[in-house]
Structures are given as structure tokens and as C-alpha cells.
Amino acid sequence: MEATQASFQKVEKIGEGTYGVVYKARNKRTGQLVALKKIRLDALLDVIHSQKKLYMVFEYLNQDLKKYMDSCQAGELPLSLVKNYLFQLLQGVSFCHSHRVIHRDLKPQNLLINEAGAIKLADFGLARAFGVPLRTYTHEVVTLWYRAPEILLGCRYYSTPVDIWSIGCIFAEMMTRKALFAGDSEIDQLFQIFRTLGTPTEVTWPGVTQLPDYKGSFPQWPRKEMKDIVPNLDRDGRDLLTQLLLYDPSKRISAKAALNHQHAMPKAINWSKLYELKQEPHETPTAFVERLRATARRYTNIDPEKPEEAVQLAPIFIGNSAPDIRKKLQKLEGAESRDLGELLQVAWIAFNNRGEEEQNKIRERENEKEQKEKRREIECEERKKKREMEREEREKKREVERRKRDRGRDAMLSAALQRALFRRRALQPNQCAYCRALGHWKRECPKNRSGPKPAAITPHHE
């Protein structure tokens, strides 16, 4: 089925760069988490589609090499793990270079790690194709700490060796757990390199004095020994690192040649064969580890019986374990660099607790159901009490209103009765029935204007 933008629901923005924005998204149909990259097409003149938006859907990986190194316990990363990561990094860069692509922004933050411990190159926003003759490029590329000296000195005709220099910096950082050259400006970055590898000359780097930003007044620092720079690296490793960090780009080792270096080759792993291994639902952790070891013996040059080499299988054991076991293993600090024996103990605990966990889940569901029933009963009782209280309030209001009406009616009846009694009360002789005054009758009452007027007495003339 053809995927459209409507097929994915954005969860959150996880990154933004010069050429695009990356979102964490979920496939609405399958529920799979993906990385959705929206490409910026600011100079676009016309498109066929109705909306001028281009989205690219990638596999979602939530950890990079920088986060992984920061999350590991204090101390060195296992040498075997560093070799594995270096080998994978060289494989990826060699593939890019063989297809005439320069990444130009290699750094630990752009090396993503999946659950099985595979490293994948990310953020090709600054990547460029190269050809013969070399094109001119901007020198505002590559994060400062991993930027090659030819770029720092203003060279605009550079090629794949800039990626090789970045790999050397990453290799040293994995060994020492700190950046090899941590400058805070371009000139400080240059001086950091010069203090470590010595100030370059025409002898060590032919043509360096002709670069645009080279100054004859640069301080002259001597070169340090590689064993002092990375003391925990063996002789073969120091030799490879030296070739990765050569000043002269034309003499710097290529990614393909580095893969054949003695430091990288003996520990090369056919990752595809190991990725195919998945723990079956009812397979014990020990049986799964034995399958991993057997596959490693067949398709790799490592010896699974040696703890320092077997640790290379730890990330695959964690990532390809059953989901419930994988969750337990991933909670361990620095799990990917731990011994297989330690991981196996945790895996067995999770495996043995499966039945108990299922029972706990059933009990939790039953308890939750009982709690819901209790809450429902309590809510019903509360609603019933509320209705009773409302009914009682209405009855009280009706009673108050009824009493008020009764009092008003009684008052009206009392007034009418008093008036009736007042009217019917017996009159005294010669008492007016209208005004109750004595001395005249009602028809003669001066206040009773509606009654007959008394006849005027006219004088009688004889």
C-alpha cells in the first residue's frame, strides 16, 4: 500500500537541521515507530504534487553513540566493543565513498545505534557527491571538534580524507571517553591539534604553507607520542589511529584500507548472520546464547569463550532477546558493555518469572475489576444519597412555602372575619351604622356621601 503523509501520526520533533526537520512518528496502520524527515525545499519552483512538502520515512533509532557513551559506567569502553563500532563505522563510510559521497558531518551524535548494537550513519544534510576533478566546497562543514585541519586552514578542494579524520577523532574518543580535540573556536581547534600532533611543516604536510589560512607565525609545538595521547590502545590500534590522523590528506588512510588493517580485520563480524538470530518465545536464555556463540564461531573470527571478545555479542543478545527479557536487560546501566554471564543471570530471572508475572497480571486485572465494581457501587450510593438530600431539600422548601401560604390565608380570613363581625355588631339606639357615631342615623351620616341627602328645612311663613 502506498504511504502518504496521512498514514503517519507525528509524536514529537526530535531534530532540526539546515536542510530538514526530523519527527518521531507512528504508522497509523501498523503502529511502528519511524523517523519522518521533512526536507526543506526553499528554492523549489514547481512540483507535481498538491503540497510542496517532501517527507522521507526512516527506521526510528532512539540512541546515538554520544548518548551511549554518556550512559555507560565510568571507565573505559571494552576494546572489543570499540573495535566493533569502529569496524561498522568504516564499513558505512567505505560504502559512501565507493559511491562517491562525502558525509562531511561525522560525529558521535550522528552515529545511531539500534537494539542489536549495529551502528548506522545518519544526518546526510551536509553530504555531497564528489568527482574528478574535485569541486570547490565551503569550509563551514563538520562539527568543530571533528573538523579536518585542511578545512580549518581554508582549503576548498577537499575530498574523502575529511571523513577519515573525523573517524580518527571518534575512535580516540571511544577509547578515552573524552573528545580528542575540544576547541571552542576555529583557531583554538587548530592549536589543540597542533599541541597534540605537532605544528605541521612542509616536511610533514607538503603544501600546507600555501593554504589560505596558514600563518607563518603559528606557534611551533612538538608532536606527542600516540601512546601518551591514547594510553589504553595497543600497538596495532595506535598505528591505525596514526594513519587516520595524518596531516597530509593524500597520505591519510582510506576507509577501505582501514578495514583491512590488522587492528580491524581480526574482529570483523558478519552482522547480518547474527541479526537473523531471534530468541524463540519458549527458548531459554542459555540456549539462545549458545546459538549466538555457535554463529559467532562460524561467521566471525572472535572467540566467544574469551570474555573480552564475547562482550561483542552482548548488544545482539540484548536486542534480539524476547521482548520481556529485553526490557529487563535494557534497564541495566551500560548493559551493552557487560559480560554475557551477568546478562544471562538477569535474563534467567526474567525467564523464570514469566509465569509469576502472568499470574500477577491476572491478579492485577481482577483487582482492578473489583476496584472498578467497588467504585461503581460507591458512586451509586453517593448518587442515591445526593438524590435523597435533594428530595428532602425540595420537601423542606415546599413545606416552608405551604406554611407561608397558610399564614397569609389565615391573615386574610382573620381580617375579613373582623370586618364582618364589625359590620354585624349590634347598634346602640341613635347610632350610625356607617361611621358608628352617635346622634344620627346612617342615612343622615355626613360621611356617607352616597346615601340620600337630608331635606333642607325651609322657614314656614304664615
UniProtKB/TrEMBL annotation:
Its EC number is 2.7.11.22. It comes from the Eukaryota. Residues 8-264 form the Protein kinase domain. GO terms for cellular component: cyclin-dependent protein kinase holoenzyme complex; cytoplasm; nucleus. ATP binds at K37. One of its GO terms (biological process) is cell division. Pfam families: Pkinase, zf-CCHC. Residues 357-410, 443-462 are annotated as: Disordered. SUPFAM superfamilies: Protein kinase-like (PK-like), Retrovirus zinc finger-like domains. Keywords: ATP-binding, Cell cycle, Cell division, Kinase, Mitosis, Nucleotide-binding, Serine/threonine-protein kinase, Transferase. GO terms for molecular function: ATP binding; cyclin binding; cyclin-dependent protein serine/threonine kinase activity; nucleic acid binding; zinc ion binding. It catalyses: L-seryl-[protein] + ATP = O-phospho-L-seryl-[protein] + ADP + H(+); L-threonyl-[protein] + ATP = O-phospho-L-threonyl-[protein] + ADP + H(+). InterPro entries: CDK, Kinase-like_dom_sf, Prot_kinase_dom, Protein_kinase_ATP_BS, Ser/Thr_kinase_AS, Znf_CCHC, Znf_CCHC_sf. Belongs to the protein kinase superfamily. CMGC Ser/Thr protein kinase family. CDC2/CDKX subfamily. This is cyclin-dependent kinase. It comes from Lonchura striata. The lineage of its organism: Eukaryota, Metazoa, Chordata, Craniata, Vertebrata. The gene is CDK3.
